């Protein structure tokens, strides 16, 4: 894993932790996203991803320590901004 990929993964991990914490504080997904945009700027995940993670945390699909990416067999999706 190169340094850029490692940093991206680290930012995503931190954002999931923020989403989990604010979900437990009963903060709505749109407000979680707004707060995260203020902190992470261009590196912030989109609001649909915040909603997806909130739903997973609320449904108990994700354990407390289960914030890291799962191993996948396919190539990851890359966000191209023009």
**What is the share of helical residues?**
55-70%
Q: Total number of β-strand segments?
A: 0
Head-to-tail CA distance between termini: 25 Å
CATH classification class of the domain at 3-58: Mainly Alpha
Structural class: mainly alpha
If you compute it from the alpha carbons, what radius of gyration comes out, rounded to the nearest whole angstrom? 13 Å
CATH topology description of the domain at 3-58? Arc Repressor Mutant, subunit A
Q: Summarize model confidence as the mean pLDDT.
A: 80
What is the H/E order?
A: HHH
CATH architecture of the domain at 3-58: Orthogonal Bundle
Question: How many helices does DSSP assign?
Answer: 3
Morphology call: globular
| Proportion of residues in extended strands | under 5%
Tell me about the biggest sheet?
none
Would you identify the regions where 5 or more consecutive residues have pLDDT less than 50?
Answer: none
């Amino acid at each position: 894993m190169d340094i850029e990929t490692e940093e991206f993964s680290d930012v995503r991990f931190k954002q999931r932790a923020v989403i989990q914490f604010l979900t437990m504080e009963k903060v709505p997904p749109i407000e979680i996203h707004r707060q995260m945009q203020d902190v992470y700027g261009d590196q912030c995940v989109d609001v649909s991803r915040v909603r997806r993670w909130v739903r997973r945390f609320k449904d108990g699909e994700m354990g407390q320590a289960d914030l890291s990416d799962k191993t996948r067999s396919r190539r990851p999706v890359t966000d191209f901004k023009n």
